[in-house]
Amino acid sequence: MIRARRTAIGLAAAALTAIALAACSSGSTGSDGAGASASGDEYGLVSAGTLTVATEGTYRPFSYHDEGSGDLVGYDVEIAEAVAEKLGLDIEFQETQWDAIFAGLDAGRFDVIANQVSINPEREEKYLLSEPYTVSPGVIVVNEGDSSISSFDDLAGKTTAQSLTSNWYELAQEAGANVEAVEGWAQAVALLEQGRVDATINDELTFLDYLKSTPDAPIEVAVETDDPSLSAFAAAKDKQALVDAIDAALEELRAEGVLAGLGDKYFGADVSE
After folding, report:
1. Which range marks the domain in which residue 130 is found?
2. Hey, which family's this protein in (predicted)?
3. For residue 162, which of 138, 141, 183, 193 has the smallest C-alpha distance?
């Protein structure tokens, strides 16, 4: 179990504050129609009563559109929906390209980002990050049969394809790789399969999902990182009450088995811890 960074006392206080505020409200209802929350004004939301969530909408299996219905679906999408329901809030998604998503958060266009935001010191300094809801090791992916990379040291002088703002970009640079900037996994894996780059680094879950939908893809994992990547909701520094409430909601969803169930739905395993 991931150790919570905030004390149980702090979470209990946040919960009691939310209950007290709800009791003083006019009885407006959340998305479940049960009157579980006030308007959500105590969280400083962009739109009262609605959790506005930024996500790519092109990042399968975390945030993407169902080919049949066209609906926005995915692991992160359903986690965000479950959290909003716990908070008694409606939810609105704003689809935003990854390279612009933090700028949108800085500009106050949405309340949180739910798009596999990895926790790192730089983001912890600038943003508030919730407790992790996804745990995944990173992997170096190469073309099938390529034995020239068996460690991160072997990336020196090689070319990798990475998103400019991702943790993997920094990791590739630190290993001495020449980094080809891409918009995401789809472009990175295309360049790899075309032989235009030697490797790409990403989280294992993305790789496994790609293999599930493209079982004949001629790629394989060469190396796995020792430390897993932890992904969380990201919010602006003035959203402490909201992040505290999200943490409490995530803890309840974990205890109820909801997080494990969503992991099994999308990956065949609990990926929340």
Report:
1. 8-134+230-267
2. Belongs to the bacterial solute-binding protein 3 family.
3. 183
